[in-house]
Amino acid sequence: MIRHTVVFKLKNPPTSPETNAFFAAAKKLAFIPGVQKFECLKQLSLKNNFDFGLSMEFDTAALYEQYNQHPDHVQFVQTYWAKNVDDFLEIDYELLP
């Protein structure tokens, strides 16, 4: 199992039309084959500068790679991510044996 997470800070205020459009588009990533347990998250800790997160799981590394190359994911990155995200940290986990 691969858990893909990314925490990020957006360029626009949380209630802006751009932020609303960003999350509306992000939620469509849940429908890409192989994606499980998709979540859009609001970061609460004061210990870092990020505001939001996305989290999802994949049964295999191959399914995760298919997601990364899927046209809907590529389009989201080009259309929304690149234009709206100010800073981010991506972490991909697998369970320890």
Number of domains: 1
**Termini, distance in Å?**
11 Å
Structural category: alpha+beta
- Number of DSSP strand runs: 4
Question: What spatial order of strands do you see in the largest sheet?
Answer: 2-3-1-4
Order of helices and strands: EHEEHHE
- Computed CA radius of gyration, to the nearest angstrom: 13 Å
Question: Number of helix segments?
Answer: 3
Give the class-level CATH name: Alpha Beta
Low-confidence stretches: none
How does this structure look, described?
Helix 1 packs antiparallel against helix 3 (71-84). The chain has one domain: Alpha-Beta Plaits. The model has no long low-confidence stretch (mean pLDDT 97). It contains three helices and four strands, in the order βαββααβ. It is 35% helix and 34% strand. Strands 2-3-1-4 form a four-stranded antiparallel sheet. The termini are close together.
Task: Summarize, please.
This protein is of the alpha+beta class and 97 residues long.
